[in-house]
Structures are given as structure tokens and as C-alpha cells.
Amino acid sequence: MVMEIVCPAGTPASLRAAVTAGAHTIYCGFADETNARNFPGLNFQRDEMRAGIAFAHDHGAKVLVAINTFPRAGDEALWHRAVADAESCGADAAILADLGLLDHAARHHPGLRRHLSVQAAASNADALNFYADTFGVKRVVLPRVLSVPEIAAINAETEVETEVFVYGGLCVMAEGRCSLSSYATGRSPNMNGVCSPASHVEYHDQGGVLDAKLGGYIIHRVGKDEPAPYPTLCKGCFSAGEKTTHLFEDPVSLNAEQLIPQLQKAGVTALKIEGRQRSRSYVAQVVRNFRAAVDALEAGRPMPEGMLARLSEGQAMTTGAYKKTWR
Amino acid sequence: MDLTVGPVQFFWSAERWSAFYDDLAQAPVDRLVLGELVCSKRLPFFQDRIPDAIATLTDAGKEVALTSLALVTLKRERKATGALAEMGIPIEVNDLTALAHLPEGMPFWVGPLVNVYNEGTISWLAGRGATRICLPPELPLDSVARLARTGADLGVAIEVWGHGRLPLAISGRCYHARMHGRTKDNCQFACEDDPDGLDVKTLDGQPFLAMNGVQTLSDTHACAAYQADALADAGVSALRLSPQSSGFDALCRLYRQLLDGHLSGDQLVEAIGRDETGARLSDGFLTGARGVDWSGKAMSG
């Protein structure tokens, strides 16, 4: 079966662009703290979600609603409402991470298919099967800490579908288990749906040297004419011992296009593209390329090569943990 | 409130490890969590010492549990996680993989690396057999208070991170190995040189984080000196102290004095400053705008 391309949409226009470009599946979220891309001007009002899902269904595509932050104590009703509304809007599944919310969804919305978010960081077959047995989870988005052979081993031991990230922003830490951002800024992926938020970014020009700061900490320092990467905390340049370098990760993003055949052999069901904050033209272009790749694979044709080089805008790319030496 | 000693987060020699728990047998703490939390490659170096430490501590009247590994990916890690249930003492679950191996209804503890952010999650865990939960350090005091009430209603003891470098992230990648130009599989145990983690500074020399193999910690030591009363009022039943390589025994005594009302928050902080010159403290996750923030006076040094 052809591998499913799961594509992000931050706006209704992006959703339509992705569907038109050939995405099998779109994932998106409501415009509040219930999803892990809670950026200003992004995401869907309830009526937009309903219309977006109808549009996708008319074109044979599915829509998954990400409700994948961890509900705040005292305010669980907001997250419960999001699950109820995802179901009534006609979503094909909800993407969840929180144990309490999974339990709630399984008990109160048994008809709504449940996927496990990458934010739950289920990293081995025992964990996947636990979520399947306990909450009826049908698909798990795997954390970006696994190699391709490890993914194959997981799929050999579970009936749960797996979905893996193939393109876009790269988390270096196990997802949903990182509070670096809230340590430096007070805003975190788990609680607020944001990481290294723009509201806490400052650029300081120090006579020809540009410092990019997050929460007052220098993350990058570049010369005047060099490109200044966004100060994402885990991709900063720091000193430890005698070394001054990108201690955790270089400013790279993930591109696993070359690994699609191996991921298919490893039993992966769906390929996920990161980037609900991206423009609709970017989304459409990435979708077209990945759709062409999986269609070529299915038809036994050679994979198109280097298809996404132009989109990366000169940024360095990595295959991340899929190759074991990354560790 | 009483005191729990969390698992050693760092890679210590077997001798240091044993001596640490021998000392703690006499310390005024109520319970301890032993075992390897961060990296499965470290466990063989001290694994055979765990039964003796358990015996010493239980003889001294302490409650003892074993932690599960924080991130389980390899087959041998899954096996080791499964084997924990057979040790005959409570397990502190720090990755849900451990839960998959626990017989339904068997009581367990939940560690700070499991995402417990709300009442629904506590209820579910309580139903599954959780008797004690140490909340994630990221939670603000408001949430802690709500969750402590839920815990009290359900008979689950709620614990809060009281002191020590904060566990901020866990990864598949070993940063100690990466820094030395090695991979995780060929790490040569570079993390053993840093018994409290290796300081990570910004390009202008500002202390920021600490690396510990696959784990990233805060530079600051979290310190709940100024929140202890509020936490007790909220129904929190224990503070967790996280092991450090020196002065830990004294630190346990200071916190006991704080909880007994023999020391004020200011006096505790002063004493910590005397013992550890240049100590940088934080309590921002509980009451500040950012985790790194500190509500007390700037420390000298």
C-alpha cells in the first residue's frame, strides 16, 4: 500500500493547498493552548475546522486534529471540549498525548479514532502496545530518537500503525519530555504549545557581531553579514569544558526523503511533515515532492533525487536519529 | 512534609555510590529511590551493589523504591525494565514502559519524568495503582496545589522537586560522547568525569545548563526554601532532594530543620550559600516567570 503523507496545516488556506497538492492526510489544531503549535495567527476556529474537514473529505483526504498539549490543572474542560468538537466537526482522528485526556477520550468518545502524539514519546513496542491495549490507540507517532532498524523492530512486535517524521523541524530531545524552553522563557511545549517563543527572542548588534538571544541567553552569535539562525534553544552554540560548539545539535532540520524506501520496509504506515507554522506554498511544495516520492516507490520507479534542496534555503539537513551514528 | 531522596542522576563510581547510601542511612530522610535513571550503560557498574544498599537503608527504617530508566528503546533496556517488577520493592515509574510490565493492581510510584499535569492523569494513575507521585518540576504552584488536593482525595501522596539540578530534557543522543567526537555506542563513559554534570555556558560565559550524558539539566539548583510552607499548606506530602556529589548529607539535615520549623527559608539559603560557594539557586518553576528565576537574594560568590 502506498505510504500515507501526513501534512501540516496552520490555516484553512494551507489545508486546502495541501489537499490540492495531493496530501493523503492533513493534521491541524484549534486556535488555543490545546495544540503544540499555539502560535499567534495560526490554527482553526471551530467553523473553519468543520469546513476544512468537509473540504478534505470531498477530495478524499483525511483530517487529524492535534490536541496534544498536557491539560492544565483546573482547566481540563478546555481540552475535553476540543476532543468533543473534533469529533462533532467530523475529524478522522484526534492526536493525543496526555494520559488523562486519552482516558477521557476513550471513555466519552469511543467512536473517535485515537492517535498517540509524538509528545507522548512512546519509544518501544511495550509502550506502543500499552497505549493500544489501555486506550485503544490505533496509531503512534514515533519520537525522533529511534533508528530505522529500531523502528522495524517495533513494527514487528505491534499491530499499532506507526507514523514517523520525515521533513521539517527536528527535536533533538525526546518530545514531550523537554522543559528547556520553560526554564529559559517560562513557556513550554507541554504546557503552552510553544518552544523557544518569538516573544522572548532579542537580537543585539554589538558592533558588527549579532547576538541572537532567547530569554536573555545568547543562543547564536554571528558576524554582520552571516545569516542569523532563529535562536532555538537546543540548536545553540555553547561552551562546555574546552569546547565551544553546537553541543546539542547544529542548526539543522530533518530531511529523511532518501530513507523512504527503508522506512516502508520497516513497516511504517505514514510519513509526517513538520511545520504547521509554514506558508501554504511551502506546504504545497513539500507535499507534491513527497507524494511524488511515495507514488514512484509504489510504482517501482526510482525515487526523485534531491527534490527538496531548493526549499531548505541553504539550511543544513540531517537524517537525525534514523541513522544510528547520530547518537 | 517529609523528605524523599531521588535517584542519583549522574555516573558515579561504584565505591562513591555505595558510600553515598551508607551515609544516607543516618540522614533524616524518609525514603529513597535507587537505581539508574539516565543511561542503561551505567547500570552494570553498580548493579550488584543495589541489594546491599536496599538492605542497609531498610534496616535504618527508610522506605526504598527502584527507579525505571527514563527513556527505554533497546531490547536489553526493555528486559531490565521488566525485571524491576521482580525485585520485591516498589518501582518508581519514570517512563510508561515500566507500567506496561507491572501487573495490574500492583502499587507503584510515579517519578518526575512522567507527564502528570492534571487531575485526570492523577485519577487514571491512581486507578492503575499509583500510591505516590512526584510532580514534574515544570509545574507552577497553582497547579501543584490543585493536584495535591486531587492526590489527597484519591489517597495518592504528592511530592514536589525540592532541591537539586533540574532534569530538563532526555535525548537519544549522548552529549558527553558528542562533545568528545564519539557516538553513544562508543562513549567510553565520558560522563564519569562529571559527578554533578558538566557546566554548559553561553558564549558570553553565562552559566546556563549542565550536560549529563543523554540528559540535560539546569545550571541552577532548584531550591524550594521559600515555598515549603505554601507546599505544606497545599497538602504536598514530601519534598524531593536530588543527590549531588558533596554536602548532600548536610543538605538533607538543613531541609529537615526547615520542615521542622527550626530554620527559616532565609536561614536555609544562607546555610546553602556557606556550604557551596557561588551556588546558583532557582525556584522560578514554582513561583517565577521563568524556571531559572530565583525569588531570594542574589547569592554571593
Set down the secondary structure blueprint.
The complex is a heterodimer of chains A (327) and B (301).
Chain A lengths: L3 E5 L3 H10 L3 E4 L17 H13 L3 E6 L8 H13 L4 E4 L2 H10 L5 E3 L8 H11 L3 E3 L6 H9 L4 E8 L4 E6 L1 H6 L3 H4 L8 E5 L3 E6 L2 E7 L14 E3 L2 E3 L6 E4 L4 H6 L4 E4 L6 H20 L16 E3 L9
Parallel strand pairs in A: 1-2, 1-15, 2-3, 3-4, 4-5, 5-6, 6-7, 7-15, 14-16
Antiparallel strand pairs in A: 7-14, 9-10, 10-11, 12-13
Helix pairs in contact in A: 1-2, 1-10
Chain B lengths: L1 E4 L8 H11 L6 E4 L15 H10 L3 E5 L7 H10 L6 E3 L3 H5 L6 E3 L8 H10 L1 E5 L6 H14 L2 E15 L3 H5 L18 E4 L5 E6 L2 E9 L4 H6 L4 E4 L6 H12 L5 H11 L5 E2 L1 H4 L14
Parallel strand pairs in B: 1-2, 1-11, 2-3, 3-4, 4-5, 5-6, 6-7, 7-11, 10-12
Antiparallel strand pairs in B: 7-10, 8-9, 9-10
Helix pairs in contact in B: 1-2, 5-6, 9-10
